Amino acid sequence: MSSPSLLTVSSAQRLAVAVVVTISVGYTITVIAFVLSAGSFPQIALLIGALAGFFLPHYLHIRAALGNVEPSGAPYGLAMQVVATYAPFPAFGPWWTAAAAPILAGSVLLRLGPRRGTWAMIPIMVFQAWWSSTGPYGTIASGFYYALTVFITGFVLYAVTRLVVVTRELEQARAELAEAAVLRERLRISRDLHDGLGRSLTAIALKGDLAGRLLAGLPAGAAGETREARREIGELVRIAREAAQDVRRVARGYREMSLTQETHRAVALLEASGVSCHVNLMEEELPRPVDEMLAWAVREGVTNVLRHSAATTCSISTSRVSGAIRLEIANDGVAPVETSGGEGPRDGHAATADGAVLSEPEGVPAGRDGSGLTGLAERAAAVGGTVRARRAGRGGFRLTVEVPAP
Question: Domain named Signal transduction histidine kinase subgroup 3 dimerisation and phosphoacceptor: which ranges (predicted)?
């Protein structure tokens, strides 16, 4: 069984407005209909004036209460409502006052607050009890009934408007608690990254340094192999140290990526892996969100080239196309996609919810290792961009990212 949904500010405000309108119309509609149908022209004019003088301040009180605006200054609007409630008594008798007095009690509570407003309601309740018990058909029971009507109606109007304020405060409290929970989780992740992965990467770098020193002490019989091994170990140490620095930056919360720097790192990594790399970046300063998005795209694209292909060449280029910046990463050496169940070869395309067209990483069957491109598409969608990844020609693969930029 599903749990009931929480009351939102908008639903609470709709409820409050519905209750206020129902009470305001329900209490006064009979008097208004009687005067309009049987009253004289002066009585109709007096009724229109009384309605305007009563409900205009009433509306202002309700609006201020729904907006949680603290009242200030003299209560002129409340005084106008009192006059509009009791001045027509000689013309209409007790019927208009009986309809307006309970609504007036709500305005009293909203304007003066529950402490002072409760005391201010006492004269209203006493007057209602007096005329309803001393009239031609009055009884003590009717006096008690009308006095109780003033009290209950006033607090109902006050309660439904305060419900909106309390609901808004609860929503703010929930948002603050959620933000605090996210902050605590970030602190935990930062601590775990710094204490766990950072320490492991530092140990890898130290072990690499040690291996390099041990190689330096070997006899010179295999100088070429020793030199090559020393170079590879040095590259391993450099990459481990850069990764450790990245972990520390993430843990400290100020990591910033740059397209130029990420491209330089990608070129060094590709060439160290035996992949010839060609770079053609446009000389234009990009907005920070666009630059960071494209840097992530370079990182993801180069990671796929190294992990999922036997590429010998790779190109990275940027260009401006129709108000957008386009990044293209193309490589060769794509492995053929295995098929199962006699379904024939797949084209490697998959559509995401945001409209980006993705592909399985080069030659990797669906569901095995495709989360990187999905995450990249989500990053691109956050800045209004798109991602397309597809096979190009025979054994080629092209990753295209377009991000709007002024």
Answer: 185-258
Residue 51: count other Cβ atoms within 10 Å of its Cβ.
17
Quick one: which of 86, 87, 110, 108 has its CA closest to 98? 86
Indicate whether 43 pLDDT > 60: yes
Pick from 387, 165, 237, 217: which is nearest to 298 by CA? 387
Residue 3 contacts by C-beta under 8 Å, 6 or more apart in sequence? none
How far apart are the C-alpha atoms of 124 and 132, rounded to whole Å? 12
- Single residue among 114, 147, 176 that ends a domain in this structure: 176
- Tokens, residue 309: 């292909």
Please say whether the dihedral angle defined by the alpha carbons of residues 232, 234, 238 and 244, taken in this order, is positive or negative.
positive
Residue 358, pLDDT above cutoff 50 = no
Structural domains in the chain (count) = 2
Domain of residue 382: give its range: 257-336+348-406
Evaluated on CA atoms 268, 273, 274, 275, the torsion sign reads negative
pLDDT of residue 327: 94
pTM (predicted TM-score) = 0.49
Q: What are φ and ψ of residue 62, in 5° steps?
A: -65, -45
Q: What is the 3-state secondary structure (H, E, C) of 280-314?
A: ECCCCCCCHHHHHHHHHHHHHHHHHHHHHECCCEE
**CA separation, residue 350 to residues 346, 361, 373 (Å):** 10, 11, 11
From the list 246, 259, 240, the residue with the least C-alpha distance to 329 is: 259
Instruction: For residue 215, tell me if it sits in a domain.
Output: no
Q: How far is CA 327 from CA 321, 387, 391, in A?
A: 10, 10, 16
Boundary of a domain, candidates 126, 149, 176 = 176
Q: Say if 249 falls within a structural domain.
A: no
Residue 158 and residue 283 in one domain:
no
Q: What is the CATH number of the domain that holds 275?
A: 3.30.565.10
**Whole-number pLDDT of residue 338:** 45
Largest pairwise CA distance in the chain: 127
